[in-house]
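We emphasize that the prediction below concerns an isolated chain of 675 residues; any contacts that depend on oligomerization or on bound cofactors are therefore not represented. The input was used exactly as deposited, without trimming of termini.
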Amino acid sequence: MKRWIIPPVDKQQAQQTAQEFGMDAFGALLLLSRGITEETQIEEFLSEDIILQNPYALPDMEQAAQRVCQALEVGETIGIFGDYDADGITSTALLTDCLRKAGAHVVYRLPDREAGYGISRAAADAFKAAGVSLIITVDNGIAAVEEAAYIQSLEMDLVITDHHLPGETLPQAIAVVDPHRADSLTAFSDYAGVGVAFMLACAVTDTPPEELLYVYGDLAALGTIADVVPLLGDNRSIVRGGLQMLRQTQRPGVAALLAAAGLQAAQISAHSVAFGLAPRINAAGRMEDPVLALELLLCDDLATAEQKAAELCECNDRRKALETEILQQARQQILSDDRLYYAPVLTVCGEGWHHGVLGIVAARLVQQFGRPALVCARDGDQITGSARSYKGVSIYEILKTASAHLTRFGGHEAAAGCSMTAQAYPAAVEAMQDAVLQLYGVLPLQELMLSCKLNPRGMSVGTVYAAQYLEPCGCMNEPPVYGLFRMKITNITPVGNGKHLRLSLFRDGVGVTAMLFSTTPDTFAYRVGDVADFAVTLGVNHYNGTESLSVIVRDIHPCTVDYERLQADVGAYLNYRALDILPQMEPVTREEIAAVYRAVKARQRVYGDPDVLCARFGTGNYLKLRLILDVLAELELIRLTDRQGVTVEYIPNAARRELMDSHILQAINGKEVQG
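Result of the prediction step, given as a token string:
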């Protein structure tokens, strides 16, 4: 269940913007809906020119470039330490290739997931043994305070390039290049790790970023898209230029990866890179050794590259199979345990679960259950976890609040990791649930940003093409989602062997056909004749030389729901079921219980999320409705199933029961029934 956000847009201003910039009026409206309203903002956003800031705007860039250039001049051995994800791998590949072409002797190392993120003492020892005198970190290092001191004790110099948030103390190094430093004056700071590494390459080679992008744009775009950083400002330029390079790449490793993913030049977009290339690169670090992906990107022989690309695809296939298996086990844990199912933070743990897919499974659970999730693997006495959340709920702050029970944790608002002993796990889980109460009281709903409302009469293939001004789309510049409001459902047709639905919608004399995927008739909460609001995305179908509009349903709402009230009610109910916190509410009366029972009897079966249930029962008080349903189910007057949608079924000829036989009612009413 999501709260829809629709930004206000001045249509007259959109018309003026369209005239001023010679663009489609609807495209102008979409720009304004994203807060791109100032003339300079619009010019920059629409410009086809590649515009990047001066690398020396980043803190410590001058010191970093000078030290690397010194190493090049005297022939020092340079060690590059990256990360096991696509951002760290592309960062390492880019800087390794650049420095080798400049004549440097470069050795590289990547961590594996068992060893954990970031440079370690073991890595420093290995570099020392390889004759390295200068270590450069990419996509890590900003938190390596102790490791930096150890590197200094080994008489090696350290240059850090990173994009993660710094702590209170910066590591001791020749240079710490991180745009998020408190003293940073850079105009743009939201680079991926590969963006910072690219800027160092520009400074070292004394090449303008706009020029070097046509050498390394493919790698820079790949890492930037994979790391899900905002596709605005410099990142937008990096990705726009990089996509052009990817469509005509001369890099054997990238060409082999594109072929293995089945991507033709015309199909290359930010979306296809995110879902076609990035998972394959990430699969190496998740399933085997991230060096496999790094060697592919550095490979200069097509035959070898094709072999390594095939290995990556095989890794990715195994990753998907393992992810599916662990996701099923995690879901089973949640669905079979009421306290876990209703908990503010979903926490699951499995013996020997593969560390490489914990984060992906956690993200899937967030999507499916709408709550933050921590997925843990137990190996003997040690537990390692990966957590995911959504906008407005910081999983990092939740872990920080529970940190007394953790041996290690780190991350940011949307994603984090932690470790703990098996003995500490129950207390850590309890502390995380308490942290939600302390930080938020009740969890906010997930949000879905709509670009604007659409009139079905004005929808066409042209609507899709008008949105192309927004490309490349990604984080903070997502593909547009539109609102179709007060649409009457006139037909529901199962398709794809009953796995999907084709919906016929109607309003103001105009019919719209929309697809709703991964929904069966039994799990669809709406019926023919219902009037509802639809959040949709639009596309173009090509068939026999003709184009037609494609409408995909992303979400559905009843037309009248108070989501502020619903958020409070749902949160209070979760706290009651998971944490035994009795809700503060007016007593439940006999008349209210009888009214709900009559409504169930009249409908026989009701299914849906809280917003649908409120609409079906004609109430804005979900908390009281839900508790009444629990009372009726406890008394075996109805059948109630609550697993990803509530199903309420009438039981014919149920035995008569006294209301005060309900322990739930006694608890919430204090032993008495009103009325």
